[in-house]
Amino acid sequence: MSNSRGRGKQNRDKRFFDYAMLFIVIFLLSFGLVMLYSVSSYEAVLDFGDSAYYFKKQAQATAFGIIMMFVVMMVDYHLWQKLAVPAYIVSGILILLVLTPLGYEVNGARRWLNVGISLQPAEVAKVGMIIFFAAYVCREGKNIETLKGVVRTLLWGVPISLLVLIITRNLSTAIIIFGIIFMMVFVATPNYKEYFLLAAGGIGIAAIFVLLVKKGVLSSEQSYRFGRIEAWLNPEAFAGTTGFQTLQALYAIGSGEIFGKGLGQSMQKLGFVPEAQNDMVFSIICEELGLFGAGAVLLMFLLLIWRFLVVANNAEDMYGALLVVGVMAHISLQVILNVAVVTNLIPNTGITLPFISYGGSAIVFLLIEIGLVFSVARGIRLRNSGN
């Protein structure tokens, strides 16, 4: 009898590990490295004399990121709840440091820090905001169910988003950071009317800007971003300037047809799509692997989101669930926006594709976020269903 109780207790105490999610992450990382080598080898030879230059740097960042993922996974995620305020402060300080001699430019954009290693503060801010707002929402409790509570919570996200926008001039990342916060608060509250009103207001303002650009009231002479909207509305008219990258990406997608030209056989990556290894990598995936291959990649992202939902629904507490929701919001937003940009559904905003686009800081902190999800998953205790 005692042995039976001991076995039952052991089964009840067994912790959950999501092997399916681990497989999906490893697949996306491996696929990303293969595609990165294929996409970047031509430019790497021209710029650095080494076809594997980008591949090597990304592989090193990925290896370090995997180590960090397992380290974070083994840490009790409740520790981060105690460090929520420092996470917010550090995020802001790192962005401000871009203005100091530690900050430096890449391709005309001052968004990086040289602290012995290359660091992009905006990527740190994404993790910091997930940790901070998961804790803040839990602390607010029922207060967040009111319109006043919702607005007050969202206002805490404005300073960091504005710092990213003003200092690093990175509108897309500012939108993603605020989008992460918006989705976390949305999931945490039972009343959705306020969010639909806020979302409708935001879409309405964006539509007004697009209409003003279309009517010629606002133009590229007044703002570079208005120029991007002009190129989005009529890329052929700006084929030699702001519409060039978008048109070349669309040519790549169209030429790939259903099954693609074959891995490594892209023509558009040979200098036609600028920085193809970054924002436009999805267009080369379409060209080399076709719509079939691109659909398979999107399916893997959908499966990853599904695993996030499983972990969030079974999380030990609200804080753990919100951490997972924050990571899910980050990845889903970037995938949706990146694909929308590449296919010209929205103006070009320079958003990378998670796990696949080139970027050391991005992959390391993305894997740290995955580590947070695994940490929450480890807190799930499997019930003994055999007795």
Explain what this protein looks like in three dimensions.
The protein is mainly α and 387 residues long. It has helices at residues 2-12, 19-48, 53-74, 78-82, 84-96, 121-140, 147-155, 158-167, 171-188, 193-214, 224-233, 244-256, 281-313, 318-342, 360-378; strands spanning 103-106, 109-114, 118-119. α5 runs parallel beside α8 (158-167) and α10 packs across α11 (224-233).
- Please report which band the strand proportion falls in: under 5%, 5-15%, 15-25%, 25-35%, 35-45% or over 45%: under 5%
Order of helices and strands: HHHHHEEEHHHHHHHHHH
What Rg do the Cα atoms give?
Answer: 22 Å
Number of strands: 3
Largest sheet: 3 strands, antiparallel
Number of helices: 15
- Helix/strand/pairing class, anyone? mainly alpha
Question: How would you concisely characterize the structure shown here?
Answer:
By secondary structure, the chain is mainly alpha-helical. 67% of the residues lie in helices and 3% in strands.
Notable traits:
mainly alpha, globular, 387 residues, 15 helices, 3% strand, 3-stranded antiparallel sheet
Please outline the helices and strands.
Elements: H1 2-12, H2 19-48, H3 53-74, H4 78-82, H5 84-96, E1 103-106, E2 109-114, E3 118-119, H6 121-140, H7 147-155, H8 158-167, H9 171-188, H10 193-214, H11 224-233, H12 244-256, H13 281-313, H14 318-342, H15 360-378
Antiparallel strand pairs: 1-2, 2-3
Helix pairs in contact: 2-3, 2-13, 3-15, 5-6, 5-8, 6-9, 6-14, 6-15, 8-9, 9-14, 10-11, 12-13, 13-14, 14-15
